[in-house]
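Ticket #4471: structure output looks truncated?

Reporter: J.K.
Steps to reproduce: submitted the chain below (609 residues) through the standard prediction queue, then opened the result file.
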Amino acid sequence: MGKDDHKIDADDRSVFDVLNERKYTVDYFQREYSWEQKHIEQLVTDLTSTFLDVYTEGDPRTAVEHYNNYYLGPFVVSSKDGMKSIIDGQQRLTSLTLFLVFLNNLQKELGGKESIEPLIFSEKYGRKSFNIQVEERKKCLEKLFLEGCYDAQPDDDQSTINMTRRYDDIGEAFPEELKGKAFPYFLDWLKYNVILVEITAYSDDNAYTIFEAMNDRGLNLTSTEMLKGYILSRFKEPKDREKANRFWKESIQTLHSHSKEEDQRFFHAWLRSQYADTIRQGKAGSSNEDFEKIGTRFHSWFRDNLHKAGLKADSPDGFGKLVHEEMKYYLDAYLDILEAQKKEKPGWEHVFYHSNWGIADSLGFPLMLAPLRSMDSPDVKRQKINEVARFMETFAVLRSINFRKFGASSIRYTMYSLVKELRGKDIDSLRALLGAKLAEMPEKWDGLGEFRLHGMNRQFVKFLLSRITGFIEQQSGAPTNFSTYFVSPGARPYEVEHIWADKFDEHRYEFEQKHEFDNYRNRIGDLVLLPQGTNQSYGAMPYGEKAQHYLKENLLVKSLHPKAYENNPNFIGMAQRLNIPFKPHVSFAKKDIDERQALIHRVCEAIWG
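Returned output as attached by the reporter:
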């Protein structure tokens, strides 16, 4: 090993310096790209909120040079033979690349001409390639870059599937107020004012040592640790400080058992749910307010806003109550929600449903915590949380069947305002308020009349069919539920399948053009859930033959066949009790899809209406 092999360099670099026409590979011990919605949403929110807090409409472009910088964190590379391999930080750099791809596509829509492409891919020896090179992800990135969407394929690895979903999440999280005059300013700021620290090792041994150290030990105090330091400093008696410190350490340890960032998400949710009053207006040039500041530096926001929590800096008793009563109560509620998101269980069902299709956690958790009061009994707490989750699920479903987005950027002002309205409500008042909010929505269940599958909503269609199928089976006394179809534990996963085979020629008597046939074939009335591979064995059969096989499947599928209505009193009783017009279909033409579409409409009203 040469003497230079022992060298380690650390340099602060802008996003432009890190990515502009620079090539990286991803080392073998790096895990799959595994960021979840909450991670990418936090990144986009942090970056856009920090920029909007300093941007002033009317500034010259040159003013961006003097805007505040944003530190995105360190990443580690190994440099050998002129090639740089990412040792630590590929999650962040991959996410940043996805964000740049999104911004480049958005720029095309807005008619901009800023230079972003060299940050995403570059040319070397006459061949173009992405700056972060992972062969398995190339096809996905190319589609996202050229078309702005990618339909995941059965043989795609988990990284590719995650990248596709996180790209969609970026679009939901990106604020509307940046899509105007502020957009080129934001691109300048992102390229030159967002800073990373590049740590370069010149041997594999040194690189892996750094990788282990950075993943075993934190480099900076977090907002949680700084908040803890401030709160503990308010206690005068050592025994009181030690008691609070012991509770704090145990609480953070419990949160970290879920995720290493869970402590920060808890404080975001708790402080927003109970104490935040102001919200940034949805226009460029507006300053960050309580809700945004809590999301970026909650420790400093808390110190500056003690009065909103009813505290005085020189009142140890108040801080004691805050920690041992308020924080403890809301932490227990937060942990209850985390557990309810993992598994469908009685009394908490809507938390689980919502976690699979619903509003982002950055909005959802403050909403679920908002109506709680620390004197609420465990049962009242559960009812309030589940009631809010039911509202959020219904809100998300209504938006989705009407082809409306419900990403954080498009509904943040509405939902943060609702947080304040929900605070401290008793259960009856809470139900009345949430019912009124749903009634005021412009999106109605009539949207199901035209609802269909398209390239970007397959996951929601599976969610919707799983909720419908699980509901009618539970109401008919079957042991199956939503999880049976959406999660499919210990079984072949269920897939969205068409009743009609993809054979336009067999339907020419009803359709002149293939696109008309395709549109009808993708309607929810022509879709069912079947175990993976099942439809492949008989999917191309004529409907009359296929329907015989449907008798072995779930009730929603089975209800197509006349025999499902023989000697099945639980099913018949369910349909009569809920006034759902189930009927068999001897043949399956265009009018039959219309009738099934109306049936789905009625079931949805029974579930959510």
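Triage note (M.O.): checked the attachment and the full token line is present. The chain has 26 helices and ten strands.
Status: closed, working as intended.
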